[in-house]
């Protein structure tokens, strides 16, 4: 695995185990239970780790807290310069980084390269932002007074990531958090720890060129649920940003909420596309296939519900079937393949039980769903993406199954389609395909989609980093990446300054 060596990761190995605790100041193998990382490509072991212990977490938090004290006073544009260098190193190693993603997440190379590109893009965004952390000047009701607000660094921030976007989601949080002046601690998915070490290796290369920056501003801790729980409990993390299942997010939110900390959650999606009778079906088809079958259905933004106007449904479904039949399924490292493996057997079993449930609930499997064993590496769980026709209110349709199952639902009026779109507990991404301006505007209006992302003539997945990314309801409400998502990583301080010689009270109160 020369790409790991190119990234400088070989030096992290000792006794065949990779480090579980990593920052410039700390470099240790874990002292907890051992586990192996198996590539979804063929099930083979690619690395072994030992989980970190609570005592090792304590060291990481102490290091991050100390680094934060210095880092918060480093001027934001200098912090931006660090992020600029991180982005340049990521550019230089784009292909090697993508290979680590493919190895651990099973994502095809084209999408893995796209993921590294998201990291690079968010670096560029964050560099510009480092000179734009603006507060407001506010007029005061009192003579001789001025009011303003400032945005200050928040503190050490914990980032808990999922296997499916092991670098991009970390980068959205960490590149923005760094320009905001926070010390960032990553607890990666246990399925993608090598990606975390690769990210850390890039940050450390950049840190080597800027000795004025405290080393402990970025660290990685590889641990199990217990470590995640301890992170959520620890008041030294004013913010815990977590991406993953709703189950995991609920537990993080409850624990962080109990200590009145902040959590930033990006959880499950159950994303829908409405295809109107006026839609450009060629365009819709391309969007559907990428959104539903791309990444083997393992994006938070994956298209899971296709809400079609009754008049176009049969034609559209036929076209999707034809397109699905020609999708190359196989080794994600081989050029030309478009659908790689599911992450593991557990994920395959979950897909099969969802398909069984769909059948029991009156659904009909129109295409796919089965395991593919020919022309794919042995040991991986490759599946043919499934198309299922079913009632919109069947219970299985309201759950997120992290696999390529596309439920096809029908509607007669747009009001009905929007109700169907909004009736699930999740609220991440949504789309409408229509050539009607009225329909598009209704979908985007206050009475339209209730999701954090609502698109017109674009699929549900593949968002750019410039927008705020996240969703409502069980998706958790957090926003990451672009727009003003940076505000979550800072504390707001409202300042009133009296430059007059009197002490007038607000609201005209006389107290003498
Ligand atoms: C995720 O699946 O957790 O919009 C993130 C998209 C990507 C990010 C997905 N930019 O599909």
Automatic annotation (TrEMBL):
Keyword NAD: yes
Record-annotated Aldehyde dehydrogenase domain positions: 31-492
One matching Pfam family: Aldedh
The enzyme's E.C. designation: 1.2.1.3
Keyword annotations of the record: NAD, Oxidoreductase
Keyword flag Oxidoreductase: yes
Active site: 266
Signal peptide range: none
InterPro entries cross-referenced by the UniProt entry: Ald_DH/histidinol_DH (IPR016161), Ald_DH_C (IPR016163), Ald_DH_CS_GLU (IPR029510), Ald_DH_N (IPR016162), Aldehyde_DH_dom (IPR015590), ALDH7A1-like (IPR044638)
CDD domains: ALDH_F7_AASADH
Quaternary data: Homotetramer.
Family listed: Belongs to the aldehyde dehydrogenase family.
Protein name: aldehyde dehydrogenase (NAD(+))
């Amino acid at each position: 695995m020369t790409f790991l060596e190119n990234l400088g990761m070989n030096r992290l190995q000792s006794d065949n185990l990779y480090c579980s605790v990593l920052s410039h100041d700390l470099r240790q193998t874990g002292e907890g239970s051992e586990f192996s990382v198996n590539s979804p490509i063929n099930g083979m072991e690619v690395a072994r780790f030992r989980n970190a212990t609570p005592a090792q977490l304590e060291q990481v938090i102490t290091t991050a807290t100390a680094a934060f004290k210095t880092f918060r006073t480093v001027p934001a544009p200098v912090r931006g310069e660090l992020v600029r260098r991180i982005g340049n190193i990521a550019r230089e190693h784009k292909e090697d980084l993508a290979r680590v993603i493919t190895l651990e997440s099973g994502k095809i190379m084209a999408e893995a390269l796209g993921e590294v590109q998201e990291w690079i893009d968010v670096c560029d965004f964050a560099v510009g932002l480092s000179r734009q952390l603006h507060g407001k000047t506010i007029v005061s009701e009192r003579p001789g007074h001025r009011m303003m607000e400032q945005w200050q660094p928040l503190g050490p921030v914990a980032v808990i990531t999922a296997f499916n976007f092991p670098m991009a989601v970390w980068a959205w949080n960490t590149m923005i958090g760094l320009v905001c002046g926070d010390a960032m601690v990553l607890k990666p998915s246990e399925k993608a720890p090598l990606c975390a070490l690769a990210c850390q290796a890039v940050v450390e290369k950049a840190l080597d060129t800027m000795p004025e920056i405290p080393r402990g501003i970025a660290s990685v801790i590889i641990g199990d649920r217990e470590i995640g729980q301890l992170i959520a409990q620890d008041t030294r993390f004013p913010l815990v940003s977590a991406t993953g299942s709703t189950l995991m997010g609920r537990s993080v939110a409850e624990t962080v909420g109990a200590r009145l900390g902040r959590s930033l959650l990006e959880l499950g999606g159950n994303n829908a596309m409405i295809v109107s009778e006026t839609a450009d079906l060629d365009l819709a088809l391309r969007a559907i296939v990428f959104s539903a079958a791309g990444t083997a259905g393992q994006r938070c933004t994956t298209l899971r519900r296709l809400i079609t106007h009754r008049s176009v449904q049969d034609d559209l479904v036929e076209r999707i079937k034809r397109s699905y039949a020609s999708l190359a399924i196989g080794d994600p490292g081989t050029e030309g393949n478009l659908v790689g493996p599911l992450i593991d057997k557990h994920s395959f079993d979950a897909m099969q039980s969802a398909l069984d449930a769909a059948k029991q609930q009156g659904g009909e499997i129109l295409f796919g769903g089965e395991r593919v064993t020919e022309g794919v590496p042995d040991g991986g769980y490759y599946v043919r993406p499934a198309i299922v026709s079913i009632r919109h209110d069947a219970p299985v349709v309201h759950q997120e199954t992290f696999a390529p199952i596309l439920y096809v639902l029908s509607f007669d009026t747009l009001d009905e389609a929007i109700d169907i779109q909004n009736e699930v507990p999740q609220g991440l991404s949504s789309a409408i395909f229509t050539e009607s301006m009225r329909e598009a505007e209704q979908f985007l209006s206050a009475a339209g989609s209730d999701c954090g992302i609502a698109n017109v003539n674009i699929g549900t997945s593949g968002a750019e980093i410039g927008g705020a990314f996240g969703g409502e309801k069980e998706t958790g409400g957090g926003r990451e990446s672009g727009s003003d998502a940076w505000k979550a990583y800072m504390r707001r301080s409202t300042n009133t300054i009296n430059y007059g010689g009197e002490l007038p009270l607000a609201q005209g109160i006389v107290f003498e």
